[in-house]
Amino acid sequence: RPLHAKAEQHLMCEEHEDERINIYCLRCEAPTCSLCKVFGAHKDCEVAPLPAVYQRQKSELSDGIAMLVAGNDRIQAIITQMEEICHTIEENGRRQKQHLGLRFDSLYSILEERKKELLQSIAREQEAKVQRVRGLIRQYGDHLEASSKLVESAIQAMEEPQMAVYLQ
């Protein structure tokens, strides 16, 4: 980064004010001037020409940007795919709920029909049994009436004092 707000061709060394920054210290990773390399803080450092380091770092940054953009594109594609998956899951869930509702409605209808049939069957059987028992009640009632008349007749016979009439 430039040390001053001036354009790069006018960037001057802070230590040697009359010297332009024209080299790059590879060990310190800082731009500097030739005097700093020869006499100053960077005399024991390895340096490279500023334009070469600038081009290399700019190329690396460009490659990094391209990789980030490509990565962002892949992430966006994955997000889009996941959103589609969410939509598909929601749609499948809605269809399954609807299908389940229809199946339960169908089963409920079948059960209601079966309930109706069974209730009618019970009612028919109940009616048949009640009529059968009432027939038996009438039959036993008739039998009881006949038996009561027989008892009444037998009692009257018992009260007959004449032996010949009684035996007749």
UniProtKB/TrEMBL annotation:
Subcellular localization(s) per the UniProt record: Nucleus
Keyword Lyase in annotation: no
Family annotation (SUPFAM superfamilies): B-box zinc-binding domain
GO biological processes: regulation of microtubule cytoskeleton organization
A Pfam family the protein falls into: zf-B_box
Cellular component aspect of the GO annotation: cytoplasm; nucleus
The protein, known as: TRI54 protein
Upper lineage: Eukaryota, Metazoa, Chordata, Craniata, Vertebrata
